[in-house]
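INTERNAL TRANSFER SHEET
From: sequence group
To: structure group
Subject: Phosphomannomutase

Please process the attached sequence and return the structure record in the designated field. Keep the field labels unchanged so the import script can parse them.
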Amino acid sequence: MTLSPSEKLRSIVKTYDVRGLVGNTLTEDMVEALAAGFVDEINGAGADVVVGHDMRDSSVGFTAAFARGARARGANVVNLGLCSTDETYFASGSWSAPAAMFTASHNPAAYNGIKFSRAGAQGISLDTGLAAIRDRAIVYLDTGMTSVPTPGTYREIDVIADYASYLRSLVDLALIRPLTIVVDAGNGMGGLTVPAVLGTAAGLAELPLTIIPMYFELDGTFPNHEANPLEPKNLIDLQKAVVEHGADLGLAFDGDADRCFVVDETGAAVTPSAVAAIVALREIARAKAEDARADIHVIHNLITSKIVPETIRAAGAIPVRTRVGHSLIKDEMKRTGAVFGGEHSAHYYFRNFWGADNGMLAAMHVLAEFGHQSLSLSEFSAEFMPYALSGEINSTVADVVASTARVRSAFEGRASFDLMDGLTVTGATAGDEPFWWFSVRPSNTEPLLRLNVEAAEPHTMAAIRDEVLALIRA
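Return from structure group:
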């Protein structure tokens, strides 16, 4: 069945962003219509609207199409050119301007997409404006573009030097011990931002860091591996290189460089939950130094490790448990005034970065905390990884509801249930019996169930994991 342009557009507008196959479900005509709908939705006529793009081959053409649509509806387009997603958040936040970033993040080369923000780097989801942008764009696709009497202007600005300076002002790395770091940019935008922020490419002072670059060449075909460090296979090159070079640690960025993953000197992954706990401690301490009597909130989603809320409470702050979701967590950051938020997917959100996520900033916090002590990273991070985690396991199922019901029925009488964002099952343990819990969440777009298990002991985690997977896949 052949879909009309408006049907294709409807199919690529996801919960938190736009993502589709280049030239098929995502075309320049659609981008032009989406840009016009975006400007109308945010009342952007006469105001600046920021746009940036990653290194994918289609991104330059899509950015030009966006500029045409936005200017037709009266917006003054400020093109950042090649940049990371968090550079667009920086521009949106520091200039109080809405923004659009062209990227498909970690998805393969055949894809591209758009991440929209309101002024101040506030996320836009289906529930908070993305559906309205989609519907306005469909009208423009069906009836043709209409221009306002005074079209908007266009200019180009490179913000990387200001972006790098701002991050350096938030985390001082000048006095840490010398560290050797292997960085895998995955041919993504980390190849641009790492030399600027951690090196001297933006004209900043040299830091006590020796950077060993891997795949820093910007290449949207991803010739070495997918720029998705959440998949263990994409960390293998980095893990080998860290050991071969005798490095202190390794960092891996995804395609648009808004997520960062960490490996220790042995090549073992440091979990995103451990990173979240480490950064939370630093952000709580900073907030206490500013106001010792203030209530300090830190957000974590429901599938981060138990160590994250434990660390937050032990530091005298208030953990806020949320559903999984990028724009949702940005909204919660704003609602609660949280100083920091961490997700299992290695998205890290900062109040002093307008509530937006920034993988580079999280990496800098880890370098600062680790670099001010003498332990190896494996020794240092062990405190923040005391429990056994399964990682996220996806299962394609014929009936999501029936599979979930089987799981719940099997654990009746030996666990408690929480229906926030799927089903969370917590073992009704007693005395010294090791704790366990798991989460089963449906995908928003596919017939998938996502399983995450954590337990005090590896054998308990493995037993629960295998039992639940058998129920899901029965």
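Handover comment: The chain has 15 helices and 22 strands. The mean pLDDT is 96.
Transfer complete.
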